[in-house]
Structure formats: C-alpha cells, structure tokens
C-alpha cells in the first residue's frame, strides 16, 4: 500500500510539471480525444482503401490517383475555409466537417457489400467519391483545428499544446493503420468500413463536449470582400520568412520524400507481407513520431530551432533513401520509424511558429495557407510517387524522392538565413 501511494504521488507530481500544462485543461483534453478518434478513423480508411484499391485493380497509377482526387477539393476549399474560420464558430465548423467524413465512410460501407459485385457494376467510382469528400473535409478541418487550439489554451502554452497535439495525432496514426490492417486481414471489408463509421461517431461526440469560453471572430469591414481577406492572409505568410520558410521546407520534403502511397506495393511485391504487414509499416512512422513527441514534451525545441528543423528534414530524406533499397521487413520498418521520429521535430517546430507568429484574428487564414503547403503535399506526393514509380520503377522513384529532399534542405538553408538562425523563445 505504501509503494502504491508513492507511485500515485510520483505520477501526481509528474502531471503537475510543465510538460503537462496544456492537458490540465479539460476542454483541450476533449479536443485531443476528438482528434484522436477522427485521426484513427481517417488513417484506418486510408490504409483499407489503398489495399482495397490495389486488390481490385493491381495498378499503381490508381494508388497515385487517390492522392490527386483528395488534394483537388482540399486545395480548392482551403483558402475559403480559412476566411470563414476567422468569422464563424470554429467548433461548429469542426463538428459539421467531421459529419462529411462520416458520410464518406457510409458510402464505402454500402459499396463494400458484395465488393466484387459492386466493382463489376459501379467500378471504383464510389471509392473516389469518398476520397473527394475526405479531401473536402480535410481542407476545412486543417485550418479549423489550428485556429481552435488557439482558443483552448493560453499563449504561453502553445508549444506544449503543439507537442501534445502532434503526439495525440501520431498515436491515432499508429492505431488507425494497424487496426485497419488487422480488421481487414482477419474479417471482411464491410466490417472494416463499419468500424470506421463507428469511430467517426465517437469523434463527433467528443468535439460536442468541448466548451469554448471565448469566441474569436475577425471583423469584416464594409466593402471588404472574401478575396481581399484571403489575399491578406497570403500576404502575411509571404512577408514572414519564419512561416514561409517552415511551410515551404516541409511541403517540398513531404512532396518528394514521402513513400506512404507506395507502401501497398512495397508490402505486396518487395517485402511480401499481407495487409497486416502493410498496417504495421503504415504505423511505424507514427511510432517514431510518438517517441519524439514525448521527448519534446520535456525538451522543447526552442533553442536553435531553425538548425534543428533543417537537420531533422535532412535525416528524414536519408531514411527514405535507405527505405527504397531495403528488402528486409524489419529494416524497412526501422527506417520508417526513424523517418517519423525526425519528421515530428518538423511538425512541432512548424506548429509552434504558426501559433506564435500569427495574430489570433488571422489564424484561420494563415492556417489555411499552411494546409495548402503541408496538407496538399501529402496527396500531391502520393500522385508524384505513383507517376514516378510508373516511369522510373518503384525503388528508383523513392530513392529519387529522398535525394530531392536533401536538395530542398540545402536550398532552403542558403536562401532563408532568418529560418536558419531562428530560435523559439
């Protein structure tokens, strides 16, 4: 009993440390719960859809097209979404956008019933309809999430909140692909898609529990139209070397360096593992990111942040080159884990810069620019991966992406000295 009391006291002291500042806020905890379930469901859907698509078509081009179909609505709506995020209730925007994701998962569930029969009559269009809806929702959610966090925590806790938000997202990203692969591998496609629907419902409940103490809304002056307000947000980013440098670096690194879209092909044709192995491979980057997140909670990257960012993205590119040439499952998994570890450093630094260097009334518009830089790079990267794999071959295309990442880092370090010398205080 005495030993138990000592452990309770130890965890109580740990919870009161600066590393847990943000999560002592109950509304932020509900937001983290929402983000966890929403992320888990979305990543489950991603891995299941990619394997389902490759199983039906056996064509890497269609895997690349998944990214293109998702990024088109995301880019198209993002800037407009940022405008309205600064004017409307951010919590309602998040909740209603999550309902769009729920609609998409419902379409996939209906399509999956007698999958081959549906494929023969409908082709793969229902899958692309869902991917389109997912991109539409993501284009709204990315700026809305960022802006909403600024209303839930105090300014002094932004770095801590960014770290917890990243760790929370990564935990969902670990469980989502792994759970999706396991459910698909050991049950049926319909059960897998039904599971996604259920988790989305939980996420809607969690965001409904968040209470916003103060509503932050920008004032739209008479005669000021939507396009002038969007241009204001873009100009703000373009005139801020810290924001522009961090956004651009991550965008091009992910665009060229990501190999996630090709993981179904690596799992099937190179490493010779099934959907269970694919789920584990998809989870590995998130495992590394979680490890780094917990380290950064106690050691935030506030000193020499710019140099740390450049080194982390360089290491990410090297991991991608190594992954391209690996034919051993455990080595490939390790390299993906390390890539997630280094990538998380970039995520935390970029998220902290966005919150600290952006006025509260412009956070939605600036975050929407960030979502185009960062969010679209994942889907455009998927399209780029599919096309280069078709033209160059699978392994050379991934290695080429890693090399391009290193070139991007070198170029950024040379042309943006402000970012190179940045320290977040």
In short:
The protein has helices at about 1-15, 25-55, 60-85, 90-110, 115-120, 125-150, 160-185, 190-210, 225-240, 240-255, 265-270, 275-300, 305-325, 330-355, 365-390, 395-415, 415-420. The protein is mainly alpha-helical and about 425 residues long.
Written description of the protein model:
- With 425 residues, the protein is mostly helical.
- It has a single domain, classed as Up-down Bundle (Growth Hormone, Chain: A).
- The protein is built from 17 helices and no strands.
- The protein has helices spanning 2-15, 26-57, 60-85, 90-112, 115-122, 125-152, 158-186, 189-208, 226-238, 241-257, 263-270, 275-298, 305-325, 329-357, 363-392, 394-415, 417-420.
- Helix 13 (305-325) runs antiparallel to helix 16.
- The protein is globular, with a radius of gyration of 21 Å.
Global shape:
globular
Total tally of structural domains: 1
Q: Could you say what the CATH topology is called?
A: Growth Hormone, Chain: A
CA(first)-CA(last) distance: 43 Å
In the CATH scheme, the class would be: Mainly Alpha
| Relevant CATH superfamily | MFS general substrate transporter like domains
The helix fraction, in percent, is over 70%
Beta content comes to under 5%
User: Order of SSEs, N→C?
Assistant: HHHHHHHHHHHHHHHHH
């Amino acid at each position: 009993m005495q030993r138990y009391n000592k452990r309770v006291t130890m965890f109580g002291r740990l919870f009161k440390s600066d590393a847990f500042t943000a999560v002592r806020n109950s509304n932020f905890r509900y937001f983290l719960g929402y983000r966890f379930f929403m992320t888990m469901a979305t990543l489950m859907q991603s891995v299941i859809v990619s394997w389902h698509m490759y199983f039906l078509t056996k064509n890497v081009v269609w895997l690349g097209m998944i990214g293109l179909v998702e990024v088109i609505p995301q880019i198209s709506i993002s800037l407009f979404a940022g405008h309205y995020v600064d004017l409307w209730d951010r919590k309602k925007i998040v909740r209603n956008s999550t309902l769009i994701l729920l609609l998409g998962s419902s379409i996939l569930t209906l399509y999956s019933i007698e999958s081959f029969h549906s494929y023969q009559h409908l082709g793969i269009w229902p899958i692309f309809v869902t991917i389109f809806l997912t991109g539409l929702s993501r284009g709204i959610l990315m700026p809305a999430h960022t802006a909403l966090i600024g209303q839930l925590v105090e300014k002094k806790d932004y770095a801590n909140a960014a770290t917890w938000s990243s760790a929370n997202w990564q935990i969902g990203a670990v469980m989502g692909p792994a759970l999706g692969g396991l459910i698909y591998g050991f049950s049926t496609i319909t059960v897998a898609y039904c599971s996604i629907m259920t988790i989305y419902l939980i996420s809607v409940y969690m965001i409904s529990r968040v209470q916003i103490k103060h509503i932050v809304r920008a004032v739209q002056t008479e005669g000021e139209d939507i396009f002038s307000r969007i241009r204001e947000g873009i100009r703000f980013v373009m005139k801020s070397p810290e924001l522009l440098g961090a956004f651009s670096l991550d965008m091009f690194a992910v665009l060229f360096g990501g190999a996630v879209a090709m993981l179904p092909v690596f799992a099937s044709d190179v490493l010779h593992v099934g959907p269970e192995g694919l789920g584990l491979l998809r989870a590995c980057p998130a495992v590394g990111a979680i490890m780094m997140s917990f380290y950064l909670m106690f050691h935030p990257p506030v000193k020499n942040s710019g140099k740390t960012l450049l080194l982390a993205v360089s290491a990410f590119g090297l991991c991608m080159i190594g992954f391209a040439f690996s034919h051993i499952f455990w080595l490939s998994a390790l390299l993906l884990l390390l890539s997630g570890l280094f990538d998380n450093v970039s995520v935390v630094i970029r998220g902290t810069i966005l919150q600290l260097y952006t006025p509260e009334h412009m956070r939605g518009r600036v975050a929407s620019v960030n979502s185009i830089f960062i969010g679209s790079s994942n889907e455009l990267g998927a399209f780029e991966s599919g096309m280069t794999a078709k033209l160059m071959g699978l392994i050379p295309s991934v290695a080429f992406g890693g090399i391009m990442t290193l070139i991007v880092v070198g170029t950024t370090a040379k042309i943006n000295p402000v970012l190179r010398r940045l320290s977040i205080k």
